[in-house]
Amino acid sequence: MSRKKIITIVGARPQIIKASAISRAIGLYFKEEIEEIIVHTGQHYDQNMSQIFFEELGIPKPSHNINVGSGRHGQQTAKMIDGIEKILIEEKPDSVILYGDTNSTIAGALAAAKIHIPVVHIEAGLRSFNKKMPEEINRIACDHMSSLLFSPTKQGIKNLQKEGFKLKQEGKASMDEPNMYHCGDIMLDNSMYFGKKVNGESQLLTSLKLEFNKYILCTIHRDSNTDIDNNLIGILEALLSCQEETHMKIVLPLHPRTKAKIEQLRDQNFVDRFIKNPNIIILPPAGFNDIIVLEKNTKLIITDSGGLQKEAYFFKKPCVILREQTEWVEIVENGNAILTGADNSKIKNAISILLAKDDFTYPALFGDGKAGKFICSKILSDL
Questions:
Q1: Do 151 and 245 fall within a single domain?
Q2: pLDDT at residue number 164
Q3: Do residues 234 and 175 share a domain?
Q4: Which one of 18, 25, 52, 312 has the lowest number of neighbouring Cβ atoms within 10 Å?
Q5: What are phi and psi of 38, to 5 degrees?
Q6: How distant is the alpha carbon of residue 90 from its chain centre?
Q7: What confidence score (pLDDT) does residue 200 get?
Q8: Does residue 214 share a domain with residue 249?
Q9: Closest listed residue to residue 116, CA positions, set 170, 175, 171, 36
Q10: Where does the chain show beta strands of DSSP type E?
Q11: Are 172 and 214 within one domain?
């Protein structure tokens, strides 16, 4: 029996991480039935930042790299559609796997759907209900071009049903009659796997003189936080205030672009005070293993990243979400996270509440850590 050929499209570092769960499942359980080809769009255009993830995660290097680089949304997406379509025509895959909600996701969906190649959307059904976010547009459109929809949460399935999708889980799937499943979260697969693997492998805590539960991990990267000076200042002021009041170290891995935005702020006295604070540790973007180590050992996570919100939950850490909405409503409803946006007073209040609380619960909202294997089995049976 010939193997099914699937093309996995990635472009952003979180997608590379998510893809590792599927690649690992194929290698462990389906290598005789599935051939995987990886396409990197180059959406995150710093090759070092992407390459370190492939190496750490043990994912095969991409067979194709479109090298799209930075650019306006339309410009970047158009280049990707053109590049992906050429690859799909050449490779003739049986299906295309897409992750999440980036420009690489929507480009892959459009390219595949228009030449009748089934789309498999992992993280389907997630909604922030804020269409000003480009990610919201991408995820909605991708869902409606997919033949197989895999939602990490029950809420995701409910969202799809509200948009007219039927809860179909039998027979062959197609774009007109897709099958959809609540499969759990593939990032839980990864967190369980790498959480065990990285123990003792990273020297980061020692080199930074960090102790368990005695520091705060923070990441900031969304345009709404980095490109509006008042929002960026509000977040940084809250972090500085938190550090000075709690005397806890704050670890802040920064994308070079975000670091440049901070350095360009008008109030240079504040910038100097923030950057020169010896207990605010600014790092270059960390590799996945180091991020896992930082997450496992921190007291609190402050982030605008969708991925880190979930990983905070996986590692049983409270989380301040620097956004007005989240797709992961379950962690907010369960009291494990607080939405603050970039509001200075809300951030400080949320930090105080979460640092003082000690009765968090962490029910199994995101599956059992076997989503990758389930997804592969359904690709084989349903397409």
A1: no
A2: 96
A3: no
A4: 52
A5: -100, 130
A6: 29
A7: 59
A8: yes
A9: 175
A10: 4-10, 34-40, 64-65, 95-99, 119-122, 148-151, 179-182, 215-219, 249-253, 280-283, 300-303, 319-321, 337-339
A11: no
Same domain (yes/no): 209, 282: yes
Other C-beta atoms lying within 10 Å of the C-beta of residue 277: 16
Residue ranges of the alpha helices (H) in 203-255?
Answer: 204-208, 223-226, 229-246
Residue 192 lies in a domain: no
Q: Residue 179 is which amino acid?
A: N
SS3 per-residue string spanning 54-82: HHHHCCCCCCEECCCCCCCHHHHHHHHHH
Spell out, as residue ranges, where the chain has pLDDT lower than 70. 1, 45-52, 199-202
Which tokens belong to 7? 């093309």
CATH number of 111's domain: 3.40.50.2000
**Residue closest to 136 by CA, chosen among 306, 314, 291, 370:** 306
State whether 170 and 254 are in the same domain: no
Mean pLDDT of the chain: 93
Q: Let me know how long the chain is.
A: 383
pLDDT at position 66: 94
Count: domains in the chain? 2
Q: Do 124 and 149 contact (CB within 8 A), yes or no? A: yes
Q: What's the confidence (pLDDT) of residue 287?
A: 78
The answer to whether 44 is a known catalytic residue is no
Please tell me whether residues 153 and 65 are part of one structural domain.
yes
Q: Which of 80, 78, 66, 115 is nearest to 95 (CA)?
A: 115
State whether residue 327 is helix, strand or coil: coil
Q: Which of 44, 116, 121, 221 is catalytic?
A: 221
193 in any annotated domain:
no
Residue 362 lies in a domain: no
Single-letter code of the amino acid located at 297: N
Question: Is residue 66 within 8 Å of 40, Cβ to Cβ?
Answer: yes
Residues 334, 226: one domain? Answer: yes
One-letter amino acid at 182 equals H
Which of 160, 112, 122 lies closest to 140, judged by CA? 160
pLDDT in tens, 220-258: 998 899 999 999 999 999 999 999 999 999 999 998 889
Residue 124 bridge partners (DSSP): none
Token pair 């693997």 is found at 197
pLDDT of amino acid 179 = 98
Which neighbouring-strand residues pair with 180?
Answer: 149
pTM of the model: 0.87
Please give the pLDDT value at position 190. Answer: 93
Q: Which domain holds residue 14?
A: 4-185+367-382
Has residue 324 been placed in a domain? Answer: yes
Share of the chain above pLDDT 90, in %: 81
